[in-house]
Specification:
Helix content: 10-25%
Largest sheet: 6 strands, mixed
Shape: elongated
Number of helices: 10
Order of helices and strands: HEEEEEEEEEHEEHEHHEHEHEEHHHEE
Radius of gyration: 31 Å
Number of strands: 18
């Protein structure tokens, strides 16, 4: 819940599983709620003379919030539902009754999701922990009721403000798994079998390449109670860093791992050549990633080919294991545990600090900009656009006041200096009208 308002709808985190697919990237358009309209109302009660205005303010529009949770396995829930909107604020009422705020829309994403602005490419947030939140779009403010416009010369104001529109954004979501160790290697090296052997995870295992199509996490329990999170990354082939096979899509999942475990098939034709090929692909994808702490594990030590390799060309520092029989797994877990303890924390994505707005005592008003177009004159500027947003264009009283405000902020003078004539078309934002002096 944000700011004590109604939390509104929450997308079910298990919807991803209902689609039956894994998704580590998605694009979505989010829109915050529109603020409610302020009320024009007057107090009318028996024996209460001169009751005066009592129109309440409109409610704030709902906000779109992304939050990280382990209950969401992937971003598949956003593949079909591309446009998401928070609730609109309710209009104000008489008796100084403020409208109800629109319900916030809370969107669950997997832990490790990086949120980008899809237009500018800016990183908006890195939701790398359970419960981390990001305000993706803020709701529009509610309009003020007519009680705010009472003055000594206007005891019965017929004016109230419409609510402001909420923010809208195109987001790009990218999931980067967070794990202590990432299992990296060529296809069919036994990464899924190893993950099954050291944890309770049940990835698909088969005697053919690219059995693993989606990255999967598993937790290994060590004798001292320590827990290690392993990530099974689909097999890498030559050219993976340039998009060959499944590499480019899934190489980014090892960016979050603190230690890389290069796993090779000891019974392959050239295990050491396979190892160097995988190292090259990782280095080509990211030089920083190639410098990450790592160790080498040789699988299938239960086969004669691997035993001959171990005796004929042993590699210093390699851990020889068998995912089938369990041989060497305790030594591998101990080596990974030691490497994780010495490794630096998992990298985070740099998020620019929020812009700090300093409140000035009396800021100089921004002069409107008038440009001559083929169809007429276009007026721009923050002050005049804000005036249009805050004006109820269906109210005759508000339109009269709008004309007065245009004169006060210098729009009429700027138009005349630009050469406007009666009957010319003038456009301010989405508002278009004929100029009359």
């Amino acid at each position: 819940m944000l700011l004590g308002v109604c939390p509104g709808p929450v997308m079910p985190p298990d919807r991803a599983e209902s689609y039956g697919t894994f998704a580590d990237s998605a694009r979505v358009h989010v829109a915050a709620g529109h603020g409610g309209r302020g009320a024009v109302s007057f107090r009318r009660e028996p024996f209460v003379p001169r009751g005066g205005p009592d129109g309440g303010d409109g409610g704030r529009g709902g906000t779109v919030i992304l939050f990280a949770t382990h209950q969401a396995a992937s971003l598949a829930s956003y593949l079909r539902r591309r446009k998401l909107r928070a609730g609109d604020g309710k209009p104000g009422q008489g008796g100084l009754k403020a409208g109800r705020a629109g319900g916030d829309l809370r969107l669950p994403v997997p832990v490790g999701t990086v949120v980008h602005d899809d237009v500018s490419g800016e990183v908006l947030g890195d939701l790398d922990a359970e419960g981390a939140e990001l305000v993706a779009a803020r709701g529009g403010a509610g309009g003020r009721g007519n009680v705010h416009f009472k003055s000594s010369i206007n005891q019965t104001p017929q004016r109230a403000e419409p609510g402001l529109a909420g923010e809208e954004r195109d987001l790009r979501l990218e999931l980067k798994l967070i794990a202590d160790a990432g299992l990296v290697g060529p296809p069919n090296a036994g990464k899924s079998s190893l993950l099954r052997a050291v944890s309770a995870a049940t990835p698909k295992v088969g005697a053919y390449p690219f059995t693993t199509l989606d990255p999967e996490l598993g937790v290994a329990e060590l004798p001292g109670g320590e827990r290690l999170v392993f990530a099974d990354i689909p097999g890498l082939i030559e050219g993976a860093a340039r998009g060959a096979g499944l590499g480019l899509r899934f190489l980014r999942h090892v960016e979050r791992t603190r230690v890389l475990v290069y796993l090779v098939d000891g019974a392959a034709a050239d295990p050491w050549g396979d190892l160097e090929a995988v190292r090259r692909e990782v280095a080509e994808y990211s030089s920083e990633l190639s410098r990450r702490p790592s160790l080498v594990a040789v699988n299938k030590v239960d086969l004669e080919e691997t035993l001959r390799l171990r005796e004929g060309s042993p590699r210093v520092g390699a851990v020889w294991v068998s995912a089938l029989t369990g041989e060497g797994l305790p030594a591998l877990l101990e080596a990974v545990s030691e490497a994780v303890r010495e490794a630096p924390p998992a990298p985070r994505f740099e998020v620019p600090p929020p812009t700090v707005r300093l409140r000035r005592r009396r800021a100089a008003p921004e002069l409107p900009l008038v440009q001559r177009r083929d169809w007429g004159y276009e007026v721009s500027g923050a002050a005049v656009l804000r005036l249009v947003e805050r004006t109820d264009l269906e109210s005759e009283y508000a339109l009269d006041r709008f004309q007065v405000q245009l004169d006060r902020i210098g729009v009429s003078q700027a138009l005349e200096e630009a050469g406007v004539r009666p009957g010319d078309t003038v456009r301010i934002g989405d508002l278009e009208f004929e100029y009359q002096p």
